[in-house]
Amino acid sequence: MSDPTSTTLAFLAVAAFAAGWIDAVVGGGGLVQLPALLVALPGATPAQLLATNKFGSIFGTTVSSVTYYRRVRPDLRTALPMAAVAYAGSVGGALVGLHIPKAAFNPIILALLVLVGSYTLLQPDLGRESIRRFSGHKHVGLAMLTGLLIGAYDGALGPGTGSFLVFALVGLLGYNFLEASAKAKIANFATNLGALTVFAPLGLVLVKVALVIAGANLVGGYVGARTAVARGSGFVRALFIAIVSAFVLKIGGSLLGWWA
Prior knowledge:
With 260 residues, the chain is mostly helical. It has one domain (6-256). Helices cover 77% and strands 0% of the residues. The chain has helices spanning 6-25, 30-40, 46-72, 76-97, 106-122, 136-156, 161-171, 177-199, 207-231, 233-256. The model has no long low-confidence stretch (mean pLDDT 84).
C-alpha cells in the first residue's frame, strides 16, 4: 500500500478527534474512526484496518479512563474484574476476527443498535440515577460476563463497543450514564489492549497512520471525558440516543444501498 497523502492524514486526524470525543462521552467512536479508515485507505487489508484502528483508539481510551477515574472515582471492585475478562475476550475475538469478513457483522451491529436505542428511548428514567439491581458476587459476576462477551465482539470487529458497554452497565446493572461511562472506558481500554496483543506482533499496524490517529484520538478522548463529567448524566443520555440513531441510519442506509 502506498503512503497516505497529507490530505488523507488530515482527514483521518479530524475523524479520530471526533471519534475520541464521542467514545469518551458515550462510546461508539469506532463507528466514526473505522469507516474513515476504510474510505481513506482502500488498499489496506481488513486486518490492517482493524489493527490500526485499535492502536489509535487505545490512546483515547487511556486518557479518558484516567480522566473519568480522577473525577468520577468508579468502584474498581467491579471495573477491574470486568476489564480483566474483557481483555481475555478481546484476545479470543481478535484471533477469530482475523478470518471473518467485516461485512458479515453489519446486520448484527444494526440489530443491536436498534434494540439498544429503542430501549433507552422508551425508558426516560434509565440512567438518570444509580439504582443497583444486584449486589455482591452476582453484581460483579454479571459485570464480568458483560465484559467477556463485549470484549470478544470488540476483538473481532469493534465498532459500537463503548456504546454496548455503557448500555449494559445502565440497563443490566443499574448505573447512571456517567458512572457507566467511567467503568466502560476502563473495560474498553482493556479490550483495545487485548486486540493489539494479537495484531501488533503480526505487523498489521500501519505505523504512520496509527500515530496520527493516536494523537488526535487522545486529544478527543481528553476533551470528551471532561465534557461528560461537566455536563452530567442527562447530557450523556441525550447524546447516547443521538449517536445510536446516527449509527442506525448510517449502517441501515449502507445495507439498503442508499450510500456507499
